[in-house]
């Protein structure tokens, strides 16, 4: 095992093999509520970012479901839409697309 590790290190230094960097993933969760007129806009923005950037995963969680209620209670969410990025509240309400995209790019780099 030690020989294999040393051999791989040597090959990487010599440029024989490339070291793969793990790709970063960004998980966007949009907390929505039934009847909310702004929630579909936030979900659509998240989906556009998901299409544009590899490594971005979007989930929509409704507060009408047990999982959505649990997530809302966990983060003390009182209004919808609320956007969590990597399990952290980033935006409450519908953000400007440019701000949303900028934050995702920062997390991917």
Automatic annotation (TrEMBL):
InterPro entries: Thioredoxin-like_fold (IPR012336), Thioredoxin-like_sf (IPR036249)
Keyword list, A-Z: Electron transport, Transport
Residues in Thioredoxin-like fold domain copies: 28-95
Domain of life: Archaea
Pfam families: Thioredoxin_3
CDD domains hit by this protein: TRX_GRX_like
Family: Belongs to the glutaredoxin family.
Protein name: Glutaredoxin/thioredoxin-like protein
Protein's organism: Pyrococcus furiosus (strain ATCC 43587 / DSM 3638 / JCM 8422 / Vc1)
């Amino acid at each position: 095992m030690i020989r294999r590790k040393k051999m791989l290190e040597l090959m990487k230094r010599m440029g024989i093999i490339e070291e793969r960097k793990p790709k970063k993933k960004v998980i966007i969760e949009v907390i929505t509520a039934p009847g909310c007129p702004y929630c579909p806009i936030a979900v659509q923005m998240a989906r556009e970012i998901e299409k544009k950037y590899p490594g971005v995963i979007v989930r929509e969680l409704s507060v009408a479901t047990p999982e959505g209620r649990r997530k809302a209670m966990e983060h003390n969410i009182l209004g919808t839409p609320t956007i969590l990025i990597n399990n952290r509240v980033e935006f409450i309400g519908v953000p400007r697309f440019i701000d949303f995209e900028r934050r995702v790019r920062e997390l991917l780099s």
